[in-house]
């Protein structure tokens, strides 16, 4: 969910206190999304996608925790099928400087990815380092102005509230051992939630269409690895998502949502 504009040239550091007002409006929540194939090019080998995603954003006093669980089944034009199950959990300090991540992915019941580690950013310019303990011990430098995922989401909301429609940042999420990603974000005009009757959590909040293009920093390609569109509410809830992998696109439609408690710390 990211082009050629240098993140370092954007000048804003990664520290999150500047988003304190935005963070105060975040509603911790657990949401279930139904996922399905939206479209596929003639050249695509994927003929169908079905599944669910659970996304949880919780307030842990000293930080934000997130958990994403994917259960997806891919059907290919040759008739083969693949079951993918992914569990991705993170903890991120509220000042945006410390981050822990754990990713485990199964393909047809067999472990395909097992990634774990932590990362730290300097308080002034956002440069830092990431240390992986899985799949093998590894350390990598993170460039100036790097952000972690929750700080980046808060930055999107901050830009949206200010009417700033475009920005680019380097984001490290630890989803794999390949390093950070440059994320180019375009924010559209605010509107009302699409389906406020579904839950009280979707009422009385602005919603912005957001488009992100993701460019791995280790790649020289002018094309993004993938793109993501979503409708993001002021309280941090995503009404819907669409992930464009180039050859095919997957929709994620909000099915159920429940509020989680704020920390009260």
Characterization of the model:
The radius of gyration is 18 Å and the shape is globular. The longest helix is centred in the middle third of the chain and has 13 residues, at 149-161. It has two helices and 15 strands. Strands 8-7-6-5-4-3-2-1-15-14-13-12-11-10-9 form a 15-stranded mixed beta sheet. By secondary structure, it is mainly beta. Helix content is 7%, strand content 52%.
Task: Quickly list its features.
mainly beta, 265 residues, 2 helices, 15 strands
Roughly what fraction of the amino acids lie in strands? over 45%
Assembly type of the chains comes to single chain
Helix content: under 10%
The best one-word shape is globular
In whole angstroms, the N-to-C terminal distance is 31 Å
Task: Give the strand order of the largest sheet, numbering strands 1, 2, ... along the chain.
Answer: 8-7-6-5-4-3-2-1-15-14-13-12-11-10-9
Uncertain stretches of 5 or more adjacent residues: 1-17
- Mean pLDDT, to the nearest integer, reads 89
**Rg on CA atoms, Å:** 18 Å
Main sheet summary: 15 strands, mixed
What's the total count of β strands?
Answer: 15
- H-E order: HEEEEEEEEEHEEEEEE
The number of helices is 2
Q: What is the SS-derived class? A: mainly beta
Describe, in short, the structure shown.
It is built from two helices and 15 strands.
Topology summary:
Blueprint: H1 20-24, E1 29-40, E2 46-59, E3 63-76, E4 81-93, E5 98-107, E6 110-121, E7 128-134, E8 138-142, E9 146-147, H2 149-161, E10 166-171, E11 181-187, E12 207-216, E13 226-233, E14 238-244, E15 248-259
Parallel strand pairs: 9-10
Antiparallel strand pairs: 1-2, 1-15, 2-3, 3-4, 4-5, 5-6, 6-7, 7-8, 10-11, 11-12, 12-13, 13-14, 14-15
């Amino acid at each position: 969910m990211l082009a050629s504009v240098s993140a370092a040239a954007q000048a804003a550091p990664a520290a999150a206190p500047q988003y304190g007002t935005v963070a105060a409006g975040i509603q911790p929540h657990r949401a279930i999304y139904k996922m399905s194939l939206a479209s596929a090019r003639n050249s695509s080998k994927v003929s169908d996608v079905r599944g669910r995603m659970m996304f949880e954003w919780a307030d842990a006093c000293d930080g934000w925790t997130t958990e994403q669980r994917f259960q997806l089944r891919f059907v290919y034009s040759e008739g083969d099928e693949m079951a993918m199950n992914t569990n991705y959990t993170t903890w991120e300090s509220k000042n945006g400087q410390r981050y822990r991540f754990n990713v485990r992915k199964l393909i047809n019941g067999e472990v395909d990815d097992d990634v774990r580690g932590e990362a730290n950013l300097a308080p002034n310019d956002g440069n830092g380092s990431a240390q992986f303990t899985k799949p093998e011990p590894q350390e990598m430098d993170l460039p100036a102005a790097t952000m972690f995922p929750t700080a980046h989401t808060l930055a999107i909301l901050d830009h949206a509230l200010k009417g700033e429609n475009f920005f680019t940042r380097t984001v490290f999420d630890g989803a794999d051992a390949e390093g950070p990603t440059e994320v180019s974000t375009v924010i559209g005009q605010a509107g009302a939630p699409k389906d406020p009757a579904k839950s009280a959590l979707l009422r009385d909040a602005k919603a912005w269409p957001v488009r992100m293009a993701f460019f791995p920093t280790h790649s020289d390609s002018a094309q993004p690895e993938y793109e993501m569109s979503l409708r993001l509410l002021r309280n941090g809830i995503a009404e819907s998502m669409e992930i464009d992998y180039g050859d095919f696109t997957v929709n994620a439609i909000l099915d159920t949502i429940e509020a989680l408690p704020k920390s009260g710390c």
